[in-house]
Amino acid sequence: MTMHPTAGQIGEGAKPAAVWWFERNGDRAGPVTPDDLRAHVMALDITPSTLVWRDGMPGWLRLDAVPELSALAGELRLAGAWPRFFARVFDVVLTFATISALLTLSVAWQIGATPLSEAIDAKWLGLFVPLLLLSQPLLDALILSVFGNTPGKALLGIHVIDARGRRPSMPRYFLRNLLVAVFGSGLFMGVIAIAALIWQYLRVSGGNPAAYDLWTKCRVLGRRVSGRQMIGFVVAAAATLVLWYAAIQLAKRLNGGHRTPVAAASKPGSGEASGSTTTTPSAAKPGISPPADTSFVWRNPVTQTAVRVDGAWIYTEANNRSGDRISLFSTDDGRAQIILGADTVSKVSLSQYAQSFVKKNSDRYTFEDSGRIVRAGTGSKWVAVARSQRHADVRLQFEVVQRGQRFWYLVVALDKPYDKHARPTDTLRETLLRSIGDGSDGAL
Fold first, then answer.
1. E strands along 305-442, which residues?
2. Run of H or E including 14
3. Exposure string over 73-99, b if 16+ CB within 10 A, otherwise e
4. Count of the separate structural domains present in the chain
5. Is the pTM of this model over 0.90?
6. Domain with 61 in it: what CATH number?
7. What are the per-10-residue average pLDDT scores of the chain (444 residues)?
8. Residues 302 and 396 grouped into a single domain
């Protein structure tokens, strides 16, 4: 027989209809007023399955089974496991897509290099990736703080509240997001991630808050998802992917087409490494050759010498890592690329500059030797051959020509089959050398 609190326990003068007892952790707690009962609800002490009782009731009942507490039970309706999962996936994809699209567009606009990972120096990539992962929960918390909800949750009728029944503060929600990444997603680490997902699924399916909700004193509320909501969710998810794809395509257009980095040289001088951002254009259109009259006039931005360039080349202005402008020429199929840049260094000989050039690029390229200095018209130039350490099939040819205190560096990058663009590459190379005042030398 179930025992109920006695009138003495309730307290002399109390109104039975307004005094409630509830079960917590296997113990009877009370008496509390309806307002106190609601406060316990908001404080996550009570769930719809919590047993409650007041004087006049035949026995202990689940809170959601008491008619006069139906409104309170409605406030307590926890969101289901699957709606929460899909809302979370939507929010993560949306924020990651937004961040990656903006950064990719920014990189393409500034230095003409896509995809984003190729524009980041390898030594910084280990730091960049964690920062990118950390930015997702931070942006997610910022969106909730500004708009009151995240897009995925709003689409599926889900919202998060704190112990006071209000929207969580940004720091609290950010902390919750970090806990979700660790204890809800297992940091996306294979078996650990699966175990974490199953653990939280079992908790939420059993009518309990997820562990990270309990720890941050948050509650995720929601109602049954309607067919209209699900259709809206699917449309929004598709639109997000389309917009992300459009942003990536725009980045490629800003960059002169789809780019696959093939070369990046550090120029010596003040001791600062400055890589020429390298790119290769979109895939070639089979069977279509550029018309003979598609050539264009290119003007050297330093010497202002105008030369004519074959229309098969795609020209892009970009910045190297030190912010200096460089000129990039790429073929349609991305198999050939030529970079021309200038560096001003005083009191340095061509031989000294070349030695510094090799040293600063030895971590990226495997030079066949230290290069050699050859006659070039009325002067001299340094030439060398190397292979890319990131792209094994890419061969690189380097030339450095000195004009007073200015050193011109020209980088030719060729991918297999090497002979496909050998002749047009050599023609453009000589053309660019003419733009700096030396075109009488032959091919490397």
1. 306-309, 313-319, 325-331, 336-344, 365-367, 372-376, 379-388, 395-403, 406-414
2. none
3. beebebbbbebbbbbbebbbbbbbbbe
4. 3
5. no
6. 3.30.1490
7. 44 53 80 80 69 85 80 72 88 81 66 46 56 80 88 87 81 90 77 86 84 87 81 88 79 51 43 37 45 78 89 84 80 88 86 86 83 79 88 88 87 87 89 73 34
8. yes
